[in-house]
Amino acid sequence: MRIVIAGGHGKIALRLAKQLADRGDQPVALIRNPDHAADVEEAGAEAALIDLEKATVTELSEKLMNADAVVFAAGAGPGSGAARKETVDHKAAVLCADAASLAGARRFVQISAIGVDDPVPEGTEPVWAAYVEAKRAADADLRERNLELDWTILRPGRLTDEPGTGVVDLGEGVARDSVSREDVASVVVALLHEPGTAGKVLNLVNGATPVDEAVREQADGSN
User: Fold this and answer.
1) Closest by alpha carbon to 156, among 123, 128, 179?
2) For 204, what's the count of Cα atoms within 13 Å in the CB-facing half-sphere?
3) pLDDT per residue over 81-101, tens digit each?
4) Cα(61)–Cα(90) distance, integer angstroms
5) How far apart are CA 216 and CA 195, in angstroms?
6) pLDDT tens-place string over residues 95-145
7) Can you give the residue ranges of the NAD(P)-binding domain (predicted)?
8) CA-CA distance, 134 to 76, in Å (whole number)?
């Protein structure tokens, strides 16, 4: 499969590119900074230069031509303000979905965050609140695209840089906990190769079920 990763220099994205390349897929990493090309190529991905905050849907769709799937793994990241949460975590996600639809890349996996549909408590730090709102809006947009995209929304818990465990808890009702970025990448790989998970919103934390088994259970309709 040729799989385009938006936010291709991110911590999850680099792990994802390596895992995809190792299994024989063709990852393409969308990056804004040309200085990041060497890193994504070392991970096994083809580098494609584009700024998701400035690109038009037509420009982006050209990068997605001949893709079998798209993964939205972009985020404004730590240290960014509320404005960039909106332009990256929300608007860039919508742009990627629009471009995937235009390019005919139906399979679309979006990395979100656990609990973003819950109300933001009063007194929440403004930038964090903006992040939650941006992720919620991006997910809401994607959920309306059943006719044009075979989407899956993955909502990891608190991310860590611990080594991957290969065992997770995956499903709609999974409670908040932590999960390693390596395991998030492994779940994305499995989701991309399991079309039966389309149309699902799945929470993810580390647990006790092997990744492939956890994904198959969701494809079979288990929670």
Assistant:
1) 179
2) 34
3) 899 999 999 999 999 999 999
4) 18
5) 10
6) 999 999 999 999 999 999 999 999 888 899 999 999 999 999 999 999 999
7) 7-195
8) 11
